[in-house]
Design brief:
By secondary structure, the chain is mainly alpha-helical. The protein is built from five helices and two strands. A two-stranded antiparallel ribbon has the order 1-2. The longest helix is centred in the middle third of the chain and has 21 residues. The protein binds flavin-adenine dinucleotide (FAD). Flavin-adenine dinucleotide binds next to helix 3 and helix 4.
Length: 174
């Protein structure tokens, strides 16, 4: 399958920027965090490598070059929208689906777990209850992804585990 090269994509393809304030630099952004979708296939040449703190492995010069090219494209895209940013970046760090895979254990380094279909969400919903007594599941793969989805899954798992359906009401009261 052929993928549209990142440099040909429009900014609206999904870049997501988070600005973080740092106490030491009041009024200035301490760091920012830019995310753009990347397919696992783009890093499949290095899929056999594994690198995380405690189990370091250099993925090689070609991988570093690949990441550097992505970083430059991303900075250009950010600069299209926020022209002052690129020239003022002092340091940057890039990560790919391989980084996610090696740190969080997701098979293809997905940020948001298993692929869901908004047109048919029930199709991929997983119950917290399993066939094994006293073994319960939780996390983003159950129903919704992200921090909110994971928290909702946790509540659902707690209710399933304790059988206490008043939990939601008690959370609302807090
Ligand atoms: C770079 C990045 C940025 C993100 N930013 C946001 C954001 O701004 N807002 C937002 O809503 N969501 C964000 N997300 C998504 C969010 O982090 C996830 O939706 C959420 O963490 C999922 O929670 P979870 O508990 O289901 O899984 P995880 O947080 O992935 O926890 C799973 C845990 O299981 C461990 N594990 C995996 N396999 C094994 C194994 N075999 N043995 C033992 N332990 C294992 C992992 O190490 C990990 O600690 C981001 C994700 C990434 C990768």
């Amino acid at each position: 399958m052929a993928f549209e090269p990142l440099h040909q994509r429009k900014l609206a393809a999904g870049i997501w920027i988070i600005f973080c304030r740092r106490q030491a630099t009041p009024g200035l952004c301490g760091y920012h965090f830019g995310v753009d979708p990347m397919r696992y296939e783009e890093v499949s040449d290095w899929a056999h490598t594994y690198n995380r703190v405690g189990k370091e492995h250099h993925r090689g010069v070609a991988y570093e070059r690949f990441k550097e090219e992505k970083a430059q494209v991303l900075l250009r895209l950010i600069g299209d929208r926020f022209p002052l940013i690129p020239a003022n970046v002092k340091r940057y760090y890039t990560s790919t689906p391989l980084t996610n895979r090696d740190y969080i254990g997701d098979a293809e380094g997905s940020m948001y777990g298993i692929q869901k279909d908004y047109r048919d969400p029930l199709q991929t919903m997983i119950s917290p209850r399993t066939k094994i007594p006293n073994l319960f599941l939780t996390g983003q793969n159950l129903n919704l992804h992200g921090i909110l989805g994971t928290s909702l899954s946790a509540v659902l798992t707690c209710i399933t585990l304790t059988g206490d359906e008043s939990l939601l009401d008690r959370i609302r009261e807090v």
